[in-house]
Design goal:
The complex is a heterodimer of chains A (about 250) and B (about 525).
Chain A: H1 2-16, H2 19-42, H3 47-57, H4 59-73, H5 78-83, H6 85-91, H7 96-115, H8 117-127, H9 134-161, H10 165-188, H11 196-203, H12 206-211, E1 218-220, H13 221-247
Helix pairs in contact in A: 1-7, 2-3, 2-4, 3-4, 3-8, 3-9, 4-7, 4-9, 4-10, 7-9, 7-13, 9-10, 9-13, 10-11
Chain B: H1 11-39, E1 47-49, H2 60-67, E2 73-79, H3 87-107, E3 112-116, H4 122-132, E4 140-146, E5 149-154, H5 155-159, E6 160-163, E7 176-180, H6 182-194, E8 200-204, H7 227-235, E9 239-243, E10 254-259, H8 268-279, E11 283-287, H9 299-304, E12 308-310, E13 314-316, E14 319-321, E15 324-326, E16 334-338, H10 351-355, E17 359-363, E18 368-370, E19 377-384, E20 390-392, E21 416-425, E22 436-443, H11 454-468, H12 494-522
Parallel strand pairs in B: 2-3, 8-9, 8-10, 10-11, 11-22
Antiparallel strand pairs in B: 2-4, 4-5, 6-7, 12-18, 13-20, 14-15, 16-17, 19-21, 21-22
Helix pairs in contact in B: 2-6, 7-11
Classes of the chains: A mainly alpha (about 250), B alpha/beta (about 525).
Chain lengths: ~250, ~525
């Protein structure tokens, strides 16, 4: 566990000392802020609707979710592998699992910081006399963090699977798009409410899971478990890929 | 000391490790799938509603109905894009209903499945409506069905009531949702489809009644049969049967019996049996007739047993013409009853029609009046003619002139065109639980139910039969208070302040920290 903590601190330091993280954070906050102000205007000041748009209902949220995690995680394993740093890390007294989990937690923490902007929007609204429904906002925030963890996990798998950061980012981006569009792709493949494709489509519909619970102010154990389990699967896959360097 | 020799990993070892890793991946994948599936099982799933208004928690009445559904009911959504002046209200009503459906489905995924038909895919939606044998609606609707049972909920009727605001450019007030009754409507619909047996409606036959299934046009090119009514009733979840009568007892599974325009007299034993059936708590619909003299065995005699007199002549109204109101034309017998002045707001059959300004068309209607109903009968006038109407009586040669003759005819007075009678039948014991109700609806004209009038009168007819069959389900689901938190964006500089925080303060802070980091790294 101490190994995990060490890796997490190292990764966070690495992230926040690199200009890329700040550029990403600045761009994402500016875009998120602009969209939030736009939502407030479009909904005639409906506070809860605007906040849920910023945290899961509107498409810019999902666009950021598809783009940012790959950019954050692209270097985490592939760059270290290319530079030979990973070999040192793997010979250090920390397990491969702790290495990958530490990186995943660092990337998720960065994303959690980004989405915490919505909490500041809530504070600003409260200051202006229209306090949001705080438990709902916190629920939406939890949803955003869980989705981020899943996409960061996918990013780490891509990063562990290739030696080129840009290729890793591209692969992770494509994978994220596929995950988001799975219900649409299933529909193209003939998914209907009463066939197995339809059942599959409902099970893997990440957007519907977020919009059907977290953004409505509901914490549903099945959705929480879905995100946790598939993030753990990505973590497992990434760990196996890192491990495979020993015997390939 | 001997140094350890480097031994390269053999191909076989690599294969072994690779296979082991692949197997572990497959096992993990299967476990993940299993855990995800298990997490969705109703018994293992936990939901916490975080909202202050508890808007994600079903009303206990609705939750109880959903819990008692014998198997899964399907809720199909057919919402449409709204016209510009109703856009905000329509979007709100649709949004609230969709949120409610998400809550419903998530609360009991094994009992309710929601299918939302995209408003852009018109062809698929039309095909689905045709499969369900349900008519569309101008503003969209929801169809709840289970097996053959169906219930139709129109957006701006059962689900939400609109306040149309004002379109006056000087005092423009946008349309808004005045009352949202989505949960109540959904509860009633689910209750209706939860019944395992379909209620059976019997139509008497063998006395020259209107034909139930004839599709061919008759009488002046208009369909005077009941084909469209029968289709609408079947689509609403009823079963239709014929009842020969002739002394036979009314079947025990009869939800309601209809006697529509018999041209031959019913025998005394038939009248007695129908009367006894209502006295046992049965449900009956009778129409006046304009093809039948009012002799013994007529529907007039039958209606009189339940405190309603089917009077002589036909109710007529002046009709609008190019130079004002006109009389003297047969079209004066076409009565269009619209709004609270014509339709009762106090009865389930007409309440919603009255509120939403719907019209009921009645042609060649006989006037109805009270005929000393017994003390256990409550009589409600469902449909009335206008204040300008009169009861047109035939002249000596039996011809109507369609002009008010104040010396002979009652003019300038509303006439009743449809009545509902509720008969309380106590079983001798004083227990309220053993008190039953007989229900009777009397229509002044059989034309109200014919195929040619069904386009206008369908909702009235369905409401009438649903009330008779006790399917109105007036459930007490409390309407939800909409606790929308709103920032008054047009007041003061609130939007400017919000913009400053969201657009400048947070990204600016981030930029400053980034520059600080960059500066420190340079040093």
């Amino acid at each position: 566990m101490s190994g995990l903590w060490t890796i997490l601190r190292r990764e966070l330091a690495g992230l926040f000392f690199s200009p890329l993280a700040w550029v990403l954070l600045f761009a994402a906050l500016a875009l998120n802020g602009a969209m939030f102000v736009l939502y407030v205007g479009l909904t005639d000041g409906a506070v809860d609707d605007s906040l849920s748009n910023a945290l899961g209902t509107a498409w810019p949220y999902w666009a950021m979710m598809a783009v940012l995690p790959p950019l954050l995680t692209m270097k985490m394993i592939s760059e270290e592998s290319r530079a030979g740093v990973l070999e040192f890390l793997l010979t250090a007294p920390v397990s491969d699992w702790a290495v990958v989990a530490g990186k995943l937690l660092a990337a998720t923490t960065f994303m959690a910081l980004l989405w915490s902007s919505a909490l500041f929007y809530g504070l600003a609204l409260a200051w202006l006399g229209a306090a949001p429904d705080w438990p709902v906002l916190l629920g939406s925030y939890l949803g955003a963090v869980l989705v981020s963890a899943l996409f960061c996990g996918i990013g780490l798998v891509a990063s562990a699977g290739t030696g080129t950061p840009l290729l890793a980012a591209f692969l992770a981006f494509v994978a994220n798009i596929v995950v988001l569009l799975l219900p649409f792709l299933a529909k193209l493949a003939g998914a209907a409410p009463d066939n197995w494709r339809g059942a599959f489509s409902r099970r893997v519909d990440v957007i519907a899971r977020v919009q059907g619970s977290f953004t409505l102010g509901v914490i549903d154990s099945s959705h929480v478990i879905f995100f946790v389990v598939w993030t753990l699967f990505a973590l497992f896959l990434a760990t196996r890929l890192v491990e495979s360097r020993r015997w390939r | 000391m001997k140094r350890a020799e480097y031994q390269p990993v053999s191909a076989w070892t690599r294969l072994r490790i690779g296979a082991s890793v692949a197997l572990s991946l497959v096992l993990f994948l299967a476990s993940a799938g299993l855990v995800t599936w298990l997490a969705e099982r109703p018994g293992l799933r936990v939901r916490a509603d975080l909202t202050q208004s508890r808007r994600n928690t079903l009303d206990p009445v609705l939750a109880d109905i959903v819990g008692k559904l014998p198997d899964q009911a399907l809720v199909e959504v057919f919402f449409k894009p709204m016209p510009k002046h109703l856009a905000a209200a329509g979007t709100e009503a649709q949004g609230r209903m969709r949120d409610l459906l998400i809550v419903l489905q998530n609360s009991a995924p094994d009992k309710v499945k929601v299918v939302d038909h995209s408003s852009e895919d018109v062809a698929t939606a039309r095909e689905a409506l045709s499969r369900l044998r349900v008519d569309g609606d101008e503003f969209g609707l929801i169809v709840v069905h289970r097996g053959k049972n169906r219930a139709r909920l129109a957006l701006f009727k059962e689900i939400a009531e609109l306040d149309f605001g004002s379109i006056d450019p000087n005092r423009y007030v946008p349309a808004r949702v005045a009352v949202f009754r989505g949960e109540e409507a959904l509860a009633a619909a689910l209750k209706r489809v939860s019944a395992d047996t379909q209620p059976k409606l019997y139509f008497t036959t063998g006395h020259g009644e209107r034909e139930l299934y004839a599709a061919a046009a008759s009488g002046g090119g208009e369909n005077r049969d009941l084909g469209a009514l029968a289709s609408a009733l079947v689509a609403d979840g009823f079963e239709i049967e014929r009842f020969e009568g002739q002394g036979a007892a009314v079947p025990g599974d009869c939800a309601a019996l209809a006697v529509v325009d018999p041209t031959q007299a019913l025998s005394e034993s038939e009248l007695g049996e129908i009367h006894a059936y209502v006295e046992r708590g049965g449900r009956l619909l009778i129409t006046g007739s304009h093809r039948d003299p009012d002799g013994p065995g007529s529907t007039r005699e039958l209606a009189a047993r339940f405190g309603v007199d089917i009077g002589l002549g036909y109710v007529a109204e002046p009709i609008p013409g190019p130079n004002g109101l006109m009389v003297g034309l047969p079209a004066c017998a076409n009565l269009f009853g619209t709004g609270p002045s014509a339709l009762s707001v106090r009865h389930p059959v007409t309440e919603s029609l009255s509120k939403f300004g719907r019209t009921v068309l009645s042609q060649l209607a006989r006037p109805l009046s009270r005929k000393s109903p017994s003390s256990n009968m409550v009589l409600t006038e469902l449909l009335r003619s206008s204040e300008d109407s009169w009861v047109d009586l035939p002249n000596d040669s039996g011809v109507h002139d369609w002009r008010p003759d104040k010396s002979l005819e009652v003019a300038g007075k509303r006439s009743t065109l449809a009545s509902a009678v509720q008969i309380t039948l106590a079983d001798g014991t004083a227990s309220a639980a053993e008190t039953r109700q007989g229900r009777v609806i009397v229509l002044g004209s059989p034309e109200v139910l014919t195929s040619s009038a069904m386009e206008t009168n369908k909702d009235f007819a369905l409401n009438a039969f649903n009330w008779l069959a006790a399917r109105e389900y007036r459930l007490s689901v409390a309407p939800r208070t909409d606790l929308r938190r709103v920032l008054e964006v047009h007041q003061g500089d609130r939007l400017v302040k919000l913009r400053s925080v969201a657009l400048f303060l947070l990204p600016g802070l981030c930029l400053l920290l980034g520059l600080f980091t960059w500066h420190r790294r340079r040093r």
